[in-house]
Amino acid sequence: MDFLRASLDYLVFGVLGLMSLLMVAFAIERWLYLRRVDLSRFSHPDELYVALTRHTTVLYTVGANAPYVGLLGTVIGILITFYDLSRTPETIAPGAIMLVLALALKAPAAGL
């Protein structure tokens, strides 16, 4: 549990950063390709469609799943918070609980 508590932010933001890097790289690649596409090279509309939509699956997948990675980080952060609350015998101030829960919400904000 200590490893997860210490490295949760790094894991979530690392995955989100990698997803962002992939998305930017493929978006630039598509933009550069679309700037120099030669329509006369394609004999059939389906060939053109395949060429124009190549690598867009990566863009769709990253865009659709980034919020879920952030949500997973929040759920794990809240689980760690509740685990820590159950392990402390003394009463905890509500402000401390709200602070930890508010910090757990930074992962979906980054995912969005």
Structural class assignment: mainly alpha
In terms of DSSP E residues, the strand content is: under 5%
Averaging pLDDT over every residue, what do you get? 85
Task: Report on the biggest sheet.
Answer: none
Helix content: over 70%
C-alpha-based Rg, rounded: 21 Å
Task: Tally the helices.
Answer: 5
Question: How many β-strand stretches?
Answer: 0
So what's the oligomer here?
single chain
> Helix and strand succession?
HHHHH
Instruction: Label the overall shape.
Output: rod-shaped
Poorly predicted regions are none
Q: State the distance separating the first and last CA atoms.
A: 27 Å
Explain the overall architecture.
The protein has 112 residues and is mainly alpha-helical. 81% of the residues lie in helices and 0% in strands. The protein is built from 5 helices and no strands. Helix 1 runs antiparallel to helix 3 and helix 3 packs antiparallel against helix 4 (94-104).
What layout of secondary structure does this protein have?
Elements: H1 2-35, H2 45-52, H3 56-87, H4 94-104, H5 106-111
Helix pairs in contact: 1-3, 3-4
Provide keyphrases for this structure.
0% strand, mainly alpha, single chain
Quick gist of this model?
This protein has 112 residues and is mostly helical. It has helices at 2-35, 45-52, 56-87, 94-104, 106-111. Helix 1 (2-35) packs antiparallel against helix 3 (56-87) and helix 3 (56-87) runs antiparallel to helix 4 (94-104).
